[in-house]
Amino acid sequence: MKNNRGFIGRIILLIVAVIALKYFLGFDIVEWIKSPKVQGVLVPIVNFFKTIYFWLDNFVRNLIS
């Protein structure tokens, strides 16, 4: 339990950092993530993890039944 101390504080710090990026530097992280270059990198990574998840899910379900 002691390792979980400050978790909410870190989330709030991350939110404040994203707001500061937008306000002071004009960098919108949502638009950056939606850009075609970033999507070209993120989509294959997300699909890879989805494939691994579904494979593991089917594997464990077959072990149980």
Question: In words, what does this structure look like?
Answer:
The protein has 65 residues and is mainly alpha-helical. The chain has two domains: 1-28; 35-65. 83% of the residues lie in helices and 0% in strands. The chain is built from three helices and no strands. The protein has helices at 7-25, 29-34, 36-64. The radius of gyration is 18 Å and the shape is flat. The relative contact order is 0.06.
**N to C succession of SSEs:** HHH
Overall structural domain count: 2
Strands, count = 0
How far the N terminus sits from the C terminus, by CA atoms, comes to 35 Å
Radius of gyration: 18 Å
Q: Given the structure, what is the number of helices?
A: 3
Q: Which structural class best describes the helix and strand composition? A: mainly alpha
Strand content: under 5%
Which features would summarize this protein structure in a list?
single chain, 3 helices, 65 residues, mainly alpha
Summed up:
The chain has 65 residues and is mainly α. It has helices spanning 7-25, 29-34, 36-64. It contains three helices and no strands.
Topology:
Layout: H1 7-25, H2 29-34, H3 36-64
